[in-house]
Amino acid sequence: MKDIGAGIRKIGFLVLSVFSGLILWQLFTSFSQIPSFIFPTPTEVWERLILVVKDGTLLKHSLITLQEVVFGLLLGLSAAIIIGYLLAKSRAVERILAPYIVASQSIPIVAIAPLLVIWLGPGIFSKILTSALIVFFPVLVNTVVGLKTVPRELYDLMRSLNASPWQRIYKLEIPAAMPVFLGGLRIGATLSVIGAVVGEFVGADKGLGFLVSVGRGLYDTSLVFVAVFTIVLLSLGLYGSVIFLEHRLLSWQKRNDD
Amino acid sequence: MKRKYLILILVVLFTAVSCSIQPESEVDTDELTHIRLPMGYIPNVQYAPFYAAVEKGFFEENGIELEFDYSYETDGVALVAANEIQFSLVSGEQVPIARAEGLPIVYVMAWYEKYPIAIVSKTEQNVKEPLDLAGKRVALPGPFGANYVGLRALLGKIGLQESDIILESVGFTQVEVLATDTSEVIVVYSANEPIQLKAQGYDLDVIMVSDYLDLVSNGLITNEITLAEDPELVERFVSAVMKGIQFSVENPEEAFQFCIKFVEGLEEADQEVQYQVLLASQELYQTDPYGYSQPEAWENMQQVLLQMGLMKKEIDLSEAYTNDFSQ
After folding, report:
1. Chain A residues with CB-CB distance to B under 8 A?
2. What would the pLDDT profile of B138-153 be if each residue is shown by its tens digit?
3. Domain end (from B147, B176, B211)
4. Which residues are within 8 A (CB) of B95 and not within 5 positions of it... i.e. 6 or more apart?
């Protein structure tokens, strides 16, 4: 009962915050008389939203971006987990790969995205790879940190129980590294959307990044706002999914704390 | 105490006298109108008339201090429309598109007469005329901007649809996708990429959109407020730009030398190729008379944009441009 009350209060504050923000936005744009092609009012953005929802434009472009994000996330996660495991387990691999991995992170994704279009063509693959590249590093770092923080004694315990390598991974390393790994996934999930959108900015004829470009090209700033808010919602949705996953996968931790 | 006051008075007097005997040039600089001009592209030899106008002092003579701004074309249009700045360089199609959205901009000087978009392919693709585009993979930055408008205008003129070609959005990587045969045809600015590709040894076929259709092309915009309240500033600015255009047409080599100061890396680049880029861009200029834009080109552009769905409504073209400043 107490939980339900707290939940309602939380939602109440959220609604209040959003509503206040919208009122301030409306007042600012109305009184400052800024032209709508510079800063549209919430009403104009809402009207534009209704139009693109009705004609199916928003759904079409959102699904494309979502597709790129999901595949990018899967690719980035898989690569980060495999390489992260190797780095955590082998000092030699770490010494060979670490300089490349760290150096690769100082390359701005905007600079490399056009090259991906040249190498992979203008289709969906270049956007998936842009998304995967941006996801890779935070997940990799957290995978390595998570695996390295598994207590030595637990490895000894597994050895004394004669556990197989697979049992060691499944019963010890995955659960022990999971909290830190999921922290990386939270960051990676939101970044994956940015990666896909950057890819779309560089060269695309569909997706939410493309919709932003179209809006800018046609001085339709309300459309730009609609696309940007949808991108934000997509990021928040992915972030929320990771939080949900955390609650499910780390419930054992909560039980232990209790 | 008296001595302290005396020193203070002397300091004040000295400062006052120093201010009053500043060199004449500094006083003049204070009187110059500072103008920030969005160019729509990175520093490039194609802007030689503007660099020449600065270096030859045409802007200063007209009481203008010019600052180049290499931000996005659409940002420049929006800032002019909001009267945050007074002028911007734009591609012709931007004016009807923006005015249809309610942006109060006015085109006051045509820089180019010919629409600068070209359809380029390697000769082995056998794209000799626009009809040969049917079924080809055609790459352009995206379905927006001058490249897209030029391509669609050309297709419409010869009775082809967008669905008759395979359109590929590749960002600004057209040179690379053509070189690597990722795409068969590219849509580019005629004065730049074809010259660069030919210099690398590629045999190309180039189809100019302007050979098939007159479309309003690159020029200078201002806003309705500036035009109504300060037409003299518009006159001074346009006149300085047109002097720069005329100078670079008559003295291309000297104009090219001025570019070195403004275009980073130009001194180390292949000078011959870059000079060819400048000469190719000059073939597009509106010179007789300078600054004049053809009413027919405006009509054509409006029709193309309406057919493409890039304009929601027809606009009154007489409000979109003026030839009052052409010479």
Report:
1. 34-38, 113-114, 117-118, 121-122, 202-205, 210, 213-214, 216-220
2. 999 988 889 999 999 9
3. B211
4. B105, B106, B107, B216, B221, B320, B321
